[in-house]
Amino acid sequence: MTRAAxxxxxxxxxxxxxxxxxxxxxxxxxxxxRPIATSSATAPAPAAVAADGNVIxxxxxxxTFGDWTVGCDxxxxxxxxxxxxxxxxxxxxxxxxxxxxGSTGRYAADVGEGVTDARGKTAAMRFAIDGxxxxxxxxxxxxxxxxxxxxxxxxxxxxxxxxSAALRxxxxxxxxxxxxxxxxxxxxxxxxxxxxxxxxxxxxxxxLTPHTAQLPAGVIATMNRIGQCQLxxxxxxxxxxAATPDGKLLAVLPCSAGAYNVIGALFVIDGDTVRPAPIDAxxxxxxxxxxxxxxxxxxVNGDFDGNVxxxxxxxxxxxxxxxxxxxxxxxxxxxxxxxxxMGECRGNPDFITTWRAMMRP
Length: 361
Hints:
Layout (H helix, E strand, L loop, with lengths): L2 H14 L45 E4 L2 E5 L5 E5 L13 E4 L7 E4 L16 E3 L2 E4 L2 H8 L4 E4 L2 E4 L3 H11 L28 E3 L4 E2 L6 H11 L12 E4 L5 E10 L2 E10 L2 E4 L21 E3 L2 E3 L2 E7 L7 E8 L4 E9 L9 E5 L1 E3 L1
Parallel strand pairs: 10-22
Antiparallel strand pairs: 1-2, 2-3, 3-4, 4-5, 6-7, 6-8, 8-9, 11-12, 12-13, 13-14, 14-15, 14-16, 17-18, 18-19, 19-20, 20-21
């Protein structure tokens, strides 16, 4: 990536945080992100699993309604996330409400890290809308949100402007509108007409092992030349490297940097041969439309985490917008196995899952 292109990236990301829908873990330069680390309370329900047909990833788009943004993944698990006031910067209570697909799909609520008392104990999950106590039942919460104005959660209050439209969007995306299972677009039709969750694609993922030996200087020089790298002087230029079962090395080379993001170019090293690593989906800032201007795919704040390569492209320093991804190596290329996005830079750091795949050896 050229220096000019990299420095333009934060501006592009902030422009994307203007309320428009988005089409759609980490190096030392960025903290461990919260985007893809879904809690057990909101983890999407398992969907049926399809055979690996080298499916081209198609992450779901996000749409914003007032003070809520919403999106669904390819398993039709849908999440609506609350936003702080437009243009506001700082802390505030946020909520993510997720509904699983299918006629029996239930809601699950997540208020992030929650609120702790002086002894460090997390407060019990309780909700109230316009002063009416709903306890901790997420299904009752969703039903009441459609006609409410102000939601109270542990840690503060949340505007319900746009919540009804977001709930209606979930009804439509999960094809439950007009049925008794809908939250807003209710009808007389039975739940049997609501489709099951689509099968998730499978990725045949190779096992990766850390490679701690230093790469030859000639190999690093070749990667820098191919990637047209322009890393700021004084920054850590050491690549992250993992070994594959067939003796190849996968390298993430710090290539350029700007603001709070380090761009890492992806390479495959086979003996003395160095080549750019193929990938099956846009990664890092390629996902936002920023042209890397090189033949090398990249990740942002990327590193190896067990058998996956992570990427966390931050839209701004608060980490409340951007794209978080996880890739598996199938022996030929990187495959997207999970993606979570937040197109609105409005204080909610819990990104919405927009793509999932199952990994198998």
